[in-house]
Every structure is written in structure tokens, then in C-alpha cells.
Amino acid sequence: MKNFKHHVIVSCFAFALLLVGCNKKESLSGPPINTPTENIQGEVDETYYYGQYHNDAVAFLIEEFEAEIESITEGDTAELIAFLIGKMETYYSTHPLVLNEEELDLPNLDYSSEMLNLFRNETQSVSPYLDSMISSITSEPSHSEIREYVDYAYQVALNDNTLEQSEKDIELAKLSMFKGSLDLWYNHPQVPQGKKLSLGLTDLCGAADGAFWGGAVAGPLGAVVIGINAGIIASSTAYILDVWW
Description:
Strand 2 (98-99) and strand 3 (102-103) form a beta hairpin. The chain has helices at residues 12-19, 49-67, 77-94, 112-118, 131-136, 143-158, 165-186, 196-243; strands at 8-9, 98-99, 102-103, 124-125. By secondary structure, it is mainly α. The protein has one domain (45-243).
């Protein structure tokens, strides 16, 4: 798999922190770059598959954490990530991801150190279909605004004939997961205004970097699996650090 459009933005997590506490509401600026102004029609339920998977898995991880919280050192991010990766492996053993009607194996990859680096404000990569949107945000947009944008970005990626199928599978998986993440955190009663988008971006950063690590080790299918798993673990970690610790 070629290194597909591995665009980099400076510290996705630093940007996410910038949103915390912002009260001023601003709209997203303009439609996605290099796309027509009219919405593309024809979205189907499959576009939400990874989003729903993400939300179900996050619920499982948070429940497991709450049940075993006394066994984890408070504030120890490395220990928390290792715990969540182990629980995610357990979840995946009975809930494997499916692509083109085939179950995807979970690659034997220890990515705990890479996950920890995400929380050290290192430079992160995201989807090229969202770069212009992210760079235009100065405060947290409404749920409907950003969801409309991501729905549109999904359709643009879906209709991008310049992509190889393996590249398209990776981008669509990230965008689908991001949809679910936004729906989860924007509607979560324990996540205050100003932090909802930042949790979604944590997902996206984790998924993008996870796809990079997984793809390097296990090819395109590994990129999808590790990407989704890393996004789930990233936002679960961020949520626990913020709400519990």
C-alpha cells in the first residue's frame, strides 16, 4: 500500500485542548475544498457501520474500567492505555470487524507506546478530506454543523476515483468512525460544551495514526482494524482522564 496522502497537521491534541472552555459559537467556514457546493445524495446505512462499532466498543471499555477502577493507578496514562488495549482485544475476540462480508483478524501488534505518544502532544495525521474543515475551526461548532460536514466528506471520499480500493476502505472507515464518535460525545451528558469535538478529534487522530501503524505491519486490512481500535482506545482514554481523573 502506498503512503496515501499522509497529510500532517500540527498537534491535533493541542488543537483539541484549544477548544476547551471556548464559549463563542462560530460556524464552519464554507464547503469542503475542491468539492461542488451541492450535497451528494445516496448515503446508505453502511456508512455508519464503523461509527456504531466504535460507540458499542467505547461503552464496553468504560463499563470494564468502572468495574475494575480500583486495580488501575489513578492518573497513570500508560497503565490505563495498556488496560484498555487488553480489554479491546477481549471485545474484538467476540466482535470482530467485518469488511466485504469477511471478518478481519486483529494483527499481533503492540501499539501501546504509540498510543501513549498521542497524549504527549506529538504531531498527528488526519483524513485529507477533513483537513480544510479542521483548520477553519476556531471554536466548537454545533453537532449538526460538523456532522453535515463529515457526512459530505464521506460521500466525497466514496466517489473519489483517484483512490485504490484499499485506500478508500481506510478513509471510509475513519470517516464512518468519526461520525459515530461525534454522535456519542455530542450527546453524552457528562461531556460539557467545549469538550465534545475535542473527544471526537481524539478518536480521529487515534484512528489515523493507528491506520498508519497497522498498515505498516499488516497491510491495508491491518490499517482498518488497528485504525478503528486505536480510535476507540484514544477517546476512551481521553474521556476517563477528563471525567474520572
